[in-house]
Design brief:
With 197 residues, the chain is an alpha+beta fold. It folds into two domains: 114 residues, GMP Synthetase, Chain A, domain 3 (2-Layer Sandwich), CATH 3.30.300.20; 54 residues, no CATH class. 22% of the residues lie in helices and 40% in strands. The protein is built from three helices and nine strands. Strands 2, 3, 4, 5 and 6 form a five-stranded antiparallel sheet that branches. A four-stranded mixed sheet has the order 1-7-8-9. A hairpin with a 6-residue loop joins strand 7 and strand 8. The radius of gyration is 20 Å and the shape is elongated.
Amino acid sequence: MMRRLGRSAIMACGLAALSLAPAAAAPAVPGWVAYSNSTVMGEGEPGLCVVDAVMVDPAGEDTVDFQFVGSADSGHGVVMDAAAEIGGSNSGIRPMEMLLVGMGGCTAIDIVMILRKGRETVSDCLVELNAERAASEPKVFTRIHVHYKVSGRGLTEAKVERAIKLSKEKYCSASIMLGQVAEITHDFEVIDETAPA
């Protein structure tokens, strides 16, 4: 039996008006003090710094919190949390969703880069990922479907299909890695902005 995640990861790259927002900070709880424990892996090499928030209540007792802030060598961070039904506070993306979002971002960057290197005019690339997970632990992804919506002027299906194939088979490390455990399928739409409305 498979558990359906639905549209849990959607990557949108509005190239004409791309805005980057800073990562959200841990929510402040009045009367509580937050301490951070950091671990840097792979010093001197690209690594990952994961910060976990340990909350101390006014009575001085530690509480376990499932909210983590991950930051990378690039200097950017993301808030992760568990679902409320297992003790989280639902204040961030789930780690398994993060894998899908990473894959979506990786392939979206590839598609735009490949098309632009081919001197194509790309104005938007939307990647929607639907995934299924195994019913039993470790509940890995078993199927991932990727739907691309690529917009631009003069784009053809052949050009977009070639970019997707190159991403899938050669450039997208995230999808190639996840493809070792999950069946990955895709389809796409080309939105030609030169066509009359």
